[in-house]
Automatic annotation (TrEMBL):
It comes from the Eukaryota. This is Uncharacterized protein LOC113503755. InterPro entries: 7tm6_olfct_rcpt (IPR004117). Keywords: Cell membrane, Membrane, Olfaction, Receptor, Sensory transduction, Transducer, Transmembrane, Transmembrane helix. One of its GO terms (cellular component) is plasma membrane. It is a multi-pass membrane protein. One of its GO terms (molecular function) is olfactory receptor activity. The lineage of its organism: Eukaryota, Metazoa, Ecdysozoa, Arthropoda, Hexapoda. The keyword Transmembrane applies. It is found in: Cell membrane. The chain crosses the membrane at residues 12-34, 111-133. The keyword Metal-binding does not apply. GO terms for biological process: signal transduction.
Length: 232
């Protein structure tokens, strides 16, 4: 293998194979990161809007009050009507946006869950083989496998955290100041927000930091079992 022309042929085949594998993997991973990042940013933006919803309603009332002067006796009632109307219009816009974002992410996860699950299994198998081969011989391959597993878990954790932030924002939107109609709409948003969107691998593993730690533990346990069996 180290003699010419076998060495040149094997080197060319290795470069071609590695480049092809990395190009496809990197392209798919980059696309998945961009799409999940978009969904996460939209959820965080809606969370900020919910947190400042009542404050924005007060600013809206102040702008309206400058244009339409109202009497002192009607000021309190009129203020509530104007502010709750602003809140109602905002909630009518937030509800379909939130539903669209979650539907988009579910469709994205439906497409990628199979490849994520198969990739996770192959990467774990590769890490075990790398460990069995000895770190002194395979120390350059080990970080690659761990990095890819950690990247999927990091993406899933960020998406899950964004869902939790949105759920907490629904609680903290000062809904106690709303009228009954707006309170019912907040309840609808809360029910949808409690169904946290997660990145899954074949519908049985949630990709998050818990999965990463469990994966590392299972990988090391499998490695020690195989290692002891080989030595015996």
């Amino acid at each position: 293998m180290n003699e010419s022309p076998n060495f040149e042929i094997s080197s060319a085949m290795m470069v071609f194979a590695v480049s092809l594998i990395i190009a496809i993997s990197a392209s798919v991973t980059t696309y998945f990161i961009m799409m999940t990042g978009y969904a996460e940013s939209q959820l965080l933006a809606l969370s900020e809007e919910l947190l400042h919803l009542w404050d924005d309603a007060e600013l809206h009332y102040e702008l309206v009050a400058e244009v339409e002067a109202s009497s002192v006796s009607e000021d309190g009632r009129r203020k509530q009507i104007i502010m709750n109307k602003y809140v109602f219009d905002s909630l009518c816009r937030i509800i379909p946006l939130h539903a669209t974002i979650k539907k988009f992410f579910y469709q994205l996860n439906e497409v990628f869950k199979g490849s994520i699950g198969i990739g996770l299994f192959l990467l774990l198998l590769g890490v075990i083989c790398v460990l069995l081969g000895g770190l002194e011989n395979t120390y350059m391959q080990l970080p690659f496998g761990i990095l890819l597993v950690g990247l999927d878990c990091y993406i899933g954790q960020r998406m899950k955290d964004a869902g939790v932030v949105f759920e907490q924002a629904v609680y903290d939107c000062q809904w106690e100041n709303f009228n009954s109609r707006n309170m019912k709409m907040v309840l609808i948003i809360l029910q949808n927000a409690q169904k946290i969107a997660v990145v899954s691998a074949l519908d049985f593993v949630e990709m998050d930091y818990v999965c990463l730690m469990a994966t590392m533990k299972a990988t090391y346990s499998t490695y020690t079992t195989f290692r002891s069996s080989i030595e015996n």
